[in-house]
Amino acid sequence: xxxxxxxxxxxxxxxxxxxxxxxxxxxxxxxxxxxxxxxxxxxxxxxxxxxxxxxxxxxxxxxxxxxxxxxxxxxxxxxxxxxxxxxxxxxxxxxxxxxxxxxxxxxxxxxxxxxxxxxxxxxxxxxxxxxxxxxxxxxxxxxxxxxxxxxxxxxxxxxxxxxxxxxxxxxxxxxxxxxxxxxxxxxxxxxxxxxxxxxxxxxx
Length: 204
What we know:
The protein has 9 helices and 6 strands; from the N terminus they run βαβααβαβααββααα. It has helices at 18-27, 38-41, 49-58, 75-84, 126-129, 131-139, 158-177, 182-185, 191-203; strands at residues 5-9, 33-37, 61-67, 102-108, 143-144, 148-150. The longest helix has 20 residues, at 158-177.
């Protein structure tokens, strides 16, 4: 089954992010994907709530694509969540506009994956730190997938960044074509891990 994907991209310093530039470049011509740059669309933070609702209704897979700022998202994406996901529309009595849709975070992270663990520098896993997004999805009756993450953006090579960007494109292509099992994906900590497992099965 073909899916329509809406990428809600929020990066206040996009022009300085080599990692995100590569990722965005890779998704530009993927059929079925709508790229929506929130900082470009709303530089004054004056969000058109009704227009955003229409976009959400037109797509069945939503991606919050953003850098992982202080264990959360940039302020415009937080404002988008606060304003667009209205009571009695997205949640609460009669709030079933998003029911059955899928949503997840695509994030760039400065620290290595090992830093996001009980014994690591940040003390919590990425899944634990993304719990508010998970709960938001749950409240809106959506399925929240584990994140797709590019770790160590300040340290990895350009080739490694490009490999991550290629992997992101592969993820989008599979999601659009419906070549996935939600039940299978939910077994993984990262969408990256799910993709790596698929590649392993193909090459064995």
